[in-house]
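Good morning,

Attaching, inline, the backbone tokens for the sequence recovery test we're adding to the shared suite. The designed sequence is right after.
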């Protein structure tokens, strides 16, 4: 008996919640429902006028006499009977529309039970904040997975200087931009779980296929067919049902060149961690210089409410996207706050020995503007995880020795994802960024 009562209570709560969802502002339903009710009543009045004054007068008279005979004026006034009939007719009309909608939804493969959730999510995300995320690698794709739940107004600006693995082989064979980080971001923002899984599938065998991901091959195919990836962008977004937009920092192949503290230069992103040695990276550049940016990217930056740098590798994911002159200029001139999502750990070879302040100073030097905020993780990293990273030469990035200026820019939140590796939790990171947007709006 208790289980039955609990089931009924749960069903009632779900029904109440769904009814409230229909009444949410901006859903685009209430206005049309109100218009339907108003038009129904106007139509009823018009029909009454037609029948009473036209050739069907005798039908209207018989209807009224029959309805009066069913009611007792001393118990129920005659006009109440008319109102009851109108109400029943309206309920029937609404029921017929609902059943017609269900039939149409089923014919398109959409379950009627989930239609409200789909509409609600779509409308809610369409009103979400306008965010531009800059970077690449696993860090950026994790961020996008968290943000896409809250907003559809996301623009990911992805570095394309990778020259290792599958991306490097495709670059060399087809003279195209590196597709690897683009593939990860498309998978993260795709509204189709099946397509997202397929994009990340890596072939483990097959001559010429081994090591490639399906997503990289798809981008290479579209790029070859359209004479460049820029012409295939619209098709990619439609096919993958992307929530938001994903664009390369530039559509021209580029090589990352690093200048080291011992005077050497290292060419190629894939060589940075292996050839730096005890030296430090002083700065990086792209060759050829003066690479163009897509107009869509510049427009998104100008209209952004928040610009997010990272999380990701400092010199191989974040800064390379900032080396496209037009993008750097648009970010510097933007009125939106810039937040740098600090890495949890340093990276052996690439940022060995660099403090958090060194990371911020490197971004400032290459961008020409300091981040307004630095978002840091406040959750403790387990000792065993720190130990594994320390064995590889990595260290926790914290505020040890930080200047007063940096401490004033830092915003902290528990961002650590539970697991054997030190990674940002997508949901927690998205919530922290949304809180910063709320703070900026209130300022």
């Amino acid at each position: 008996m208790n289980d039955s009562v609990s089931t009924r209570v749960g069903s009632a709560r779900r029904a109440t919640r769904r009814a409230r969802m229909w009444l949410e502002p901006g859903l685009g339903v209430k206005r049309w429902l109100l218009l339907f009710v108003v038009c129904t009543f106007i139509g009823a009045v018009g029909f009454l006028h037609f029948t009473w004054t036209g050739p069907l007068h005798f039908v209207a008279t018989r209807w009224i006499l029959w309805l009066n005979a069913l009611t007792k004026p001393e118990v129920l006034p005659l006009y109440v009977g008319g109102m009851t009939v109108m109400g029943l007719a309206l309920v029937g009309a609404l029921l017929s529309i609902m059943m017609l909608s269900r039939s149409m939804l089923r014919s398109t493969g959409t379950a009627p039970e989930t239609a409200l959730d789909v509409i609600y999510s779509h409308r809610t995300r369409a009103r979400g904040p306008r965010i531009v995320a800059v970077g690449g690698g696993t860090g950026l794709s994790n961020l996008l997975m968290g943000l896409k739940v809250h907003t559809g107004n996301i623009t990911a600006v992805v570095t394309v200087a990778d020259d290792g693995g599958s991306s490097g082989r495709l670059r060399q064979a087809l003279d195209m931009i590196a597709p690897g980080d683009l593939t990860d971001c498309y998978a993260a923002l795709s509204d189709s779980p099946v397509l997202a899984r397929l994009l990340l599938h890596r072939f483990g065998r097959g001559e010429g296929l081994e090591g490639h991901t399906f997503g990289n091959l798809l981008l290479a195919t579209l790029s070859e067919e359209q004479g460049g990836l820029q012409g295939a962008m619209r098709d990619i977004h439609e096919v993958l049902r992307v929530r938001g937009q994903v664009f390369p920092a530039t559509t021209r192949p580029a090589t990352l060149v690093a200048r080291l503290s011992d005077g050497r230069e290292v060419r190629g992103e894939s060589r940075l961690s292996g050839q730096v040695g005890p030296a430090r990276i002083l700065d990086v550049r792209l060759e050829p210089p003066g690479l163009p940016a897509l107009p869509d990217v510049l427009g998104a930056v100008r209209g952004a409410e928040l610009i997010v740098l990272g999380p990701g590798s400092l010199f191989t994911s974040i800064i390379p996207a900032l080396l496209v002159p037009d993008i750097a200029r648009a970010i510097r001139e933007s009125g939106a706050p810039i937040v740098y999502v600090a890495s949890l750990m340093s990276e052996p070879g690439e940022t060995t020995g660099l403090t958090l302040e060194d990371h911020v100073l490197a971004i400032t030097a290459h961008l020409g503007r300091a981040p307004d905020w630095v978002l840091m993780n406040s959750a403790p990293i387990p000792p065993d995880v720190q130990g594994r990273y320390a064995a590889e030469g990595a260290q926790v990035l914290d505020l040890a020795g930080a200047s007063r200026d940096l401490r004033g820019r830092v915003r902290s939140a528990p961002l650590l994802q539970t697991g054997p590796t030190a990674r940002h939790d997508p949901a927690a990171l998205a919530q922290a960024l949304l809180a910063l947007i709320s703070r900026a709006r209130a300022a």
